[in-house]
Amino acid sequence: MSDFLRDLRLGGRQLGRRPGLVAAAVASLALGVGINTTLFSIVNGVLLRGTLVSRPDRLVEIYTGVSEEFPQLTTSYPDYLDLEYAVDAFSGMAAAGHVRGIISGERPELISGEAVTAGYFDVLGIPLALGRSFDRRENLVPGAAPVAVISHGLWQRRFGGQPGIVGQELEISSVRYTIIGVAPPRFTGMVPGLPVDVWVPIMMVDRLVFSGVQTSSDKDPGTTRVDRRGTRWLFVKGRLADDRTVDQARAQVDAVFARLRRDYPLTNEKVTSSVVPAAGVRFHPVLDPYVRGASVVLMAAVGLILLIACANVANLLIAQAVARRSEFALRAALGASRARIIRQLLSEALLLAAAGGGLGVLLAWWAGRALAGLGTEVFPIPVAFDFSLDGRVLAFAACASLGTALVFGLAPAWSASRTDVMGVLKGSPEGGGRRRITTGDVLVATQLAFSVVLLVSGALLGRGLLVARHTDIGFDPTHVSSLQFNLKMNGYDVERAAALREELLRVLRALPGVVAVSTASRLPLAPDINLDSIHVPGHHRADDEGTVTDTVGVGPDYFEVVGVPVVEGRAFTDADVAASRRVAIVNETMARKYWPEASAVGRLVYTSGFESEPLEIVGVARDHKVRSVGEAPRAYLHVPDRPSQGIGLVVRTGLAAAAMLPTLRKAVWSLEPNVLFTEDVPAGDVVATTMAPTRLGAIAAGAFGGLALLLAAVGLYGIVSYAVGRRTREIGIRIAIGATRAQVIRMVLLKGGRLAAVGIALGALVAAAAGRVLESLLYGVSTYDPAAYATACGVLLLVATGASLRPAVAASSVDPVRALRSE
What we know:
Elements: H1 2-16, H2 19-48, E1 59-65, H3 77-86, E2 90-103, E3 109-116, H4 120-124, E4 130-131, E5 147-150, H5 152-159, E6 169-172, E7 175-182, E8 198-201, E9 209-210, E10 235-240, H6 246-263, H7 265-268, E11 272-277, H8 288-323, H9 325-333, H10 338-372, H11 375-378, H12 391-417, H13 421-425, H14 439-469, E12 480-486, H15 494-509, E13 514-519, E14 531-534, E15 547-554, H16 558-562, E16 566-569, H17 574-578, E17 583-587, H18 588-594, E18 604-605, E19 615-621, E20 636-640, E21 646-653, H19 657-671, E22 679-682, H20 683-689, H21 692-726, H22 728-736, H23 741-770, H24 786-812, H25 816-822
Parallel strand pairs: 3-8, 5-7, 15-20, 17-19
Antiparallel strand pairs: 1-10, 1-11, 2-3, 2-9, 2-10, 4-7, 5-8, 6-7, 12-21, 12-22, 13-21, 14-15, 16-19, 17-20, 18-19
Helix pairs in contact: 1-10, 2-8, 2-10, 2-12, 3-6, 8-12, 8-14, 8-21, 10-12, 14-21, 14-23, 14-24, 15-19, 21-23, 21-24, 22-25, 23-24
């Protein structure tokens, strides 16, 4: 240990004599370690950070499926009750559905919550900070027990952390709830990242607005959410009994659903079940592989940045090692072993890594605080992840710093330990001969190759965005605004909501600057979708499952608002909505698919099997994009937007949407001051959400690529300058015998050019192999797009030339007399 400390002290003195080297090395490492630690803190917060759940290894997730396409969905409450009664492999079961509501008061607030079963907190093993959890008697009669457990955050935010909060009342969506408990800090419900403010008994679900994942059956005879067996909306967990296994629980659950398929064929005929260990599920079994895959790709990208930073510092240390070759030769002549010299240089590398790692952690801490507030700006729903630097993140930073010390310190140390003692002591300028390819050359070429990979990725994504922006999406979002809210949160029934909707349409149409107003359940390219299984006479048999088709509810004037013409037949009228007529409008793709040789107008479509009342097609609308900009033409079914408590307004104005939105909001508040909008944005912003992953990917890849290229340029500058310094005598001789400045500059530029060419070739090969990862994010662009590769390679050549130019000019100015005299 004493030798190690002595090496560190000596290393500190050596580094103190080279402040420029230390600053460059520490800055490079701080960026590399900081970016990697920042991204790992995100991965840790999203995927790895543990929950407060007790013994998560004994929990399982229970899903039901309605088709091969959707095998793991939610469960209905009647099915849950059958499972709870019949499956003894569980010591307890819990179910929850996501809901939203408005807290009344001087500061109305839109909140998220979960409607849960009585054993929710007990099954999860969550001890409450105050009060008690729900009693089974509070989950027997719909609407009879308005009690609530609030989150620790809501307790602090809304009530200032009052110790006597239990027993007080809280009004949510016009219902007064008695607070019976407070959840512990950091507990946010069943789904990580989706913050929950309040938990209520499952029997209170119809007094709030459901906002989770749901599938429904039109054949369900039930009347409320809790008694409809075909309405599947609950996420279910079970805690294994101490003497039971996952396989035993799975067998019992399968047996229950086999009986339900037999006993309830109308709603359960094709319903399947699956049981998976909860420890292996973060968000959802279908979603998790995509999230983990994206995390791996991002970690690999920023890992390249760290490797480039390491290569940069290694180049600096190699150059310094050459400059110190006389020192190492003298140490070796005095008896120092190769191991001793390597250990000394590694101690200097360790000090550099510690300083760079420390600054990198500070950078990650700052970045984590900045990222924590971006959830509501990036995602359409409130999200909250903890990106703080816990022990796992700090351990990662420490390992990254130690690993970088070994990576960038070993090559210079090994190179320096091989000094030709006799050659250096005799005054040989090269210390034992000059190699055509040095370790520094290899490192710089590798840096440049990594830069090419990131630059090509950014160029591909950027090209995809350009193509998407010039793609005809089939409708005109310019000057269109979308306003959505749910009057159920304000205590409205369907009749009152319908009356207010009509009054809102009248008031908005009378506003100056408003061109047209309609209602719609969604805008094209909005993230929420609605699917119906349709049956078409002549294409489906009575026992067919039907074809799942995108469906939207729209009102009169909708097609005028979004700028989609009805090319055949007519649009919807007020009479269609008022009389609840069974009519529909299809798009051109759907018309061609089912009636290719005849008019679709007048044809029938069934949305609930052939035994239900059909929809008569009264019009055909022009095709437009439905889910994404890059999609192939998709069948789309429009039906009249029937009155409901959920209101979606689309408004076309003469002014820009952003400028008109304040006026539109005021008009709505003039009729109902307590409305809280769940969406109030320009339609262009809704369209932009479909390109958000590509846009974020392009920004990230471009930023990483730019940083990597900057680091690589510094490395290239260093290696070319180092090569010029080693060849000063040779250059002096060349100039003395008649070489021109242009010839010297060309000779030095060729050194950088060769390294750039090797880096481009290697990077292009790697980028081509890795390009398939980006396919799902590209719009109309091949992963081998020549323009993207040409752009990336051109930028790199330009930067490489700039990095080599200064050393080249300096070399051409060498005074041959002084160069020869110095030797």
